[in-house]
Amino acid sequence: MNKSLLTLIIPVLLLTLLACQSDQQRADVADWPQFRGPNRDGKSSETGLLKEWPADGPEQLWMVENIGDGYSTAIIAGSTLYTTGMIDSLDYLTAFSLNGDRKWQVPYGKAWRSSWPGVRVSPTIENNRIYLISGMGEISCLNAANGKTVWSLNAYEKFEGEYKTWGIAENLLIADDKVIYTPAGKKTTMVALNKKTGETVWMSESIGDYTGYVSPILVKRGGRNIVVTVTGNYIIGVDADSGTLLWKDYYTGLFPEDGPDWAPIINCNMPMYQDGRIFITSGYDHPAAMYALSEDGGSIELAWQSPVLDTHHGNVVLVDGYIYGSNWINNREGNWVCLDWETGEVAYETEWKTKGSLTYADGMLYCYEEKDGTVGLVEATPEEFRVISTFRNTAGHGPHWAHPVIHNGVLYIRHGDTLTAYTIKA
């Protein structure tokens, strides 16, 4: 073979090899297919991330605009990123390549336009289908490749749901062959739809409550699959296979007797489960609570409660036996807190900027405070709230209420009608 031909062939072979390695790396990285990640716990399994950022923050890879207003997060499956936003009176789903190139954008239902308007629900993806609920309660199943509707129905109207001041903010849960939604109200509390057709599989009994702003989780205990969520007033467990209400507890009743009379009941955070225990938290001076789930999954019992970690709506993460999150002082202020999972003992309560949301990866907390958009890289240790690096996400408008997403060495921050990608790979 002559040298000129080798000169042509070798670069092609090298590029092919690099492409194959890149594809393998992508295949080895877990997707971020739903709100709060693969396991709905705000944790990424990635390693090899930066332990300290440059003085001016990690490198920005790209930023996209005009995705619509809202507080949802980036959702990633394969080589495509999806996010939602409100444009005029409708909720839209937009698909991007992982380098920020827009693929398509489609509407999927009526938007919430009253108090704090904007999308508050992220897509849930399984295989080639995307499941969404609009701000007014329309559930849609869309083709993940092109956004075309597979099926849809106005679930809120069909099941005579009841919400309060801020509309519907429930990220749909996939449980085997079912889509789980909590309309609440007098007709039912929770329903399961066939994920392929949208037909009703079961309706639970009504507990006479309204819906919270909470996304359910799926718990396996005692041979049962249990959907756990928090409504306006109760923590409930529903058998995922039959729709039978297994248990409920009046979470609102945990307000202390000397608590503020004005405090609203606003449950926004997902439950957290590990080893037979369920943790829930809510803002406005409402105590966080740990429940022990019986061996057969058929009942719960209050284990401990904490007045310190009353998380507003930024959720919490559990790392090596400790719960991390921020608490509520007022609607503009909050401290960062660490509790012992077993006892509820306070490891620290530290003032830093203000309250916000957080995500965990590779030994670090990614704390995104809601007022100025500062992102903090914090060691996940109960010793202290140790901030290693910070930067501000300046794109977009409004409060910084979206949750950070980490995928394949990239940090995604949503703000208003923008989404920005930063490289955090070591």
List keywords for this structure.
mainly beta; 4-stranded antiparallel beta sheet; 5-stranded mixed beta sheet; globular; Lipocalin; 426 residues; disordered N terminus; single chain; 7% helix
Describe the structure.
The chain is mainly beta. Among the domains are: 140 residues, Beta Barrel (Lipocalin), CATH 2.40.128.630; 140 residues, Lipocalin (Beta Barrel), CATH 2.40.128. Helices cover 7% and strands 40% of the residues. It has a five-stranded mixed β-sheet with strand order 1-27-28-29-30, with no helix packed on it. A four-stranded antiparallel β-sheet has the order 2-33-32-31, with no helix packed on it. A four-stranded antiparallel β-sheet has the order 3-4-5-6, with no helix packed on it.
Please specify the SSE layout and strand pairing:
Layout: H1 3-28, E1 43-44, E2 60-64, E3 75-77, E4 80-87, E5 90-97, E6 102-110, E7 124-126, E8 129-133, E9 138-143, E10 149-154, H2 155-158, E11 173-175, E12 178-181, E13 191-194, E14 200-203, E15 217-221, E16 224-230, E17 234-239, E18 245-250, E19 272-274, E20 277-280, E21 288-293, E22 300-306, E23 317-319, E24 322-326, E25 336-340, E26 346-350, E27 356-361, E28 364-369, E29 374-379, E30 387-392, E31 405-407, E32 410-415, E33 418-423
Parallel strand pairs: 1-27
Antiparallel strand pairs: 2-33, 3-4, 4-5, 5-6, 7-8, 8-9, 9-10, 11-12, 12-13, 13-14, 15-16, 16-17, 17-18, 19-20, 20-21, 21-22, 23-24, 24-25, 25-26, 27-28, 28-29, 29-30, 31-32, 32-33
Number of E-state strands: 33
Number of helices: 2
Structural class: mainly beta
- Which overall shape is indicated by the principal axes computed on the Cα atoms? globular
According to CATH, what is the topology of the domain at 45-70 and 313-426? Lipocalin
Q: Distance N terminus to C terminus?
A: 41 Å
At CATH's second level, what is the architecture of the domain at 45-70 and 313-426?
Answer: Beta Barrel
CATH class (first level) name of the domain at 45-70 and 313-426? Mainly Beta
Rg, rounded, reads 22 Å
Biggest pleated-sheet summary: 5 strands, mixed
Low-confidence stretches: 3-28
Mean pLDDT: 92
Q: What percent strand?
A: 35-45%
Provide the helix percentage. Answer: under 10%
Strand order of the largest sheet: 1-27-28-29-30
